[in-house]
Specification:
alpha/beta, Rossmann fold, 2 domains, 3-stranded parallel beta sheet, globular, binds NADP nicotinamide-adenine-dinucleotide phosphate
Amino acid sequence: MSATILDGRALSKELTAQLKAEVARLKAATGKVPRCVNIVIGQDASAASYGKSQKRAAEEIGIDYQFTYLAHHVSQKELLDQIKFLNEDPEVNGVMIHKPVPEGIDFQQAVNALAPEKDIEGMGTGNLGRLFLGKTPIIPCTPASAMALLALSGVDIAGKDAVVVGRSEIVGKPLVFLLLEKNATVTVCHSGTHRAGRLESHVRSADIVIVAMGKPAFIKGAWVKEGAIVIDVGINNVNGKITGDVEFDAAAARAAFITPVPGGVGPVTAVMLMKNAIETFKQQAGRP
Ligand SMILES: NC(=O)c1ccc[n+]([C@@H]2O[C@H](COP(=O)([O-])OP(=O)(O)OC[C@H]3O[C@@H](n4cnc5c(N)ncnc54)[C@H](OP(=O)(O)O)[C@@H]3O)[C@@H](O)[C@H]2O)c1
């Protein structure tokens, strides 16, 4: 079998066009466009380049996207004061805090201080709690991207055996709840899945494999079940080349669908942030 590629760049273009039309509709109805703010602490170069690509995505869709820069030595209290100010600003619909943050800053405490209806990354406990209950429209962006690519396969997830490799707060754990919502049977693997051959045997039995480890080509193509769907979230820089966590060619020879790296989950993630920014705007404007 040779897998169909789940093309993140094409999906990103399609979603961008849909969101652009939605912003135009909201602008016509309210006279306003969604406005979001990215709090960047210190002058981190990678934050700047990732932030720039988000800004480009926002501008294409018609979202007003601004940066608030705080000094590297900002205190936790000053950060919380800034968050309070943005929470109370009726002209700001969405706020995010750029990672990484300098040592001494408690990121999760800061994210939890965001008003849940402005938390566009969906990483505060309010939105994560709603995700747990299956009741949030604000889904963390990378898991949302993985689920959108899974949906692109057209395969009904209900009743399928899904294996998630990785249990980070930002990717693996939210995915568990999103897959459960779709009635998949979910197994989660992590560094504690260390008994010899256990990771391999879980992957071998999976209809759907979603990998977010940060370890290049760790998941061997030979482990992938014939006809499985493989979503590779990993981004690894190996000698200047970006690769995923799955051995792509060998996996593609067995899978029915697979995401490439680059060009899979990554391009859809920034669009999902914009989708959340539109959702928070709609909630605040009381518009469906
Ligand atoms: N495409 C995108 O938009 C996007 C967004 C975010 C992240 N990423 C990429 O996705 C990857 C994962 O990111 P992350 O933030 O989730 O990373 P992370 O916080 O480092 O989590 C990695 C996970 O992999 C598990 N793991 C590590 N070694 C393992 C092993 N030998 N066997 C089984 N599980 C193992 C860890 O288990 P423990 O929990 O036991 O330590 C952990 O749960 C990275 O490459 C990152 O760059 C991509």
